Amino acid sequence: MSSEAPRTQPSVAVAITGASGALYATRTLAALLERGHQVELVVSDYGRRLLRDELGETASVDRLVPFLVDRYGPGVKAGQMTLHSNRDLGATLASGSHSCCGLVIVPCSMKTLAGVAHGLSRNLVERAADVMLKERRPLVIVPRETPMSLMQLKNMVLCAEAGATVLPAMPAFYQQPRTLDDLADFIAGKILGALGIQHELYPVWTGRVTQGG
Known about the structure:
The chain has about 210 residues and is of the alpha/beta class. The chain has a single domain, classed as Rossmann fold (3-Layer(aba) Sandwich). Helices cover about 40% and strands about 15% of the residues. It has seven helices and six strands; from the N terminus they run βαβααββααβαβα. It has a six-stranded parallel sheet, sandwiched between helices. β1, α1 and β2 form a beta-alpha-beta unit. About 40% of the residues are buried.
């Protein structure tokens, strides 16, 4: 992790919580870094466990940058990443005066979704989300749960009504993905698009008709 340095452009925040889908998180991180963004990262306790359980010990938070370089290539070094403690409610992300241009929670656990929906701000992830909503900045929530209960659906509606983009981890298949990384590219691309960041992570739909379609 790099220490915080003077920035020439607003940063982008990424939060990782304990829902399945660590690959979506790492692909999103890599895509932002490849494009030279300053990334401010917050990982919950269960998010830390998620990275290790789904991607192995080499993807633990203290080894995350080398993991990203190894998996996605040296282009990741174009950006910088700063790690914040989820317990630090005095971090920069907890203040609307901080020039962070957006936050994505990927994946977003149902517990975190509920906390954001009801403005609880019990930790830095929830507080940073609250800041994005009150400052009218992009907040992208990527839930990964199925099936969903009525309470979970209502919490997503509350977040959407407050101004968040609810972007479930539902990859498309028109691009004929062949690997898990192809599916992760699609979700990461959707996230970047929701943040207003250009990308070429998946082919756009051209309207072509396939045989038998």
